[in-house]
Amino acid sequence: MGGNPRNRNGSRRRLLRARVLAAYDTCAICGQPVDKSLRTPHPMSAEVDEIIPISRGGDPLSWDNVRLTHRRCNRLKSNRSDDYARAQLAGKPQPNATSLPLTTSDW
Length: 107
Prior knowledge:
Elements: H1 10-23, E1 46-50, E2 66-70, H2 71-77, H3 82-89
Antiparallel strand pairs: 1-2
């Protein structure tokens, strides 16, 4: 079965989205207020983010796996960590693991 797993149970996802919008007022990534009157595709509009991304096995229909974010913050996070998204917002991109300096042991 293909397609977006968020849409497989559309009514359940809509209810979960409404619950998240009612419960939270600040972005879980940047900590700033979310203006819920803004509509997509505005970068500061409200989005429901999965804490554990669907691509990494997260459940898009679980209350324990969702929170409120700005569209921009959610896009920066993608399927990475909150720390990665915060570093991007601060303009401090994290280095790739392959670009870290090699260290050796003395023993």
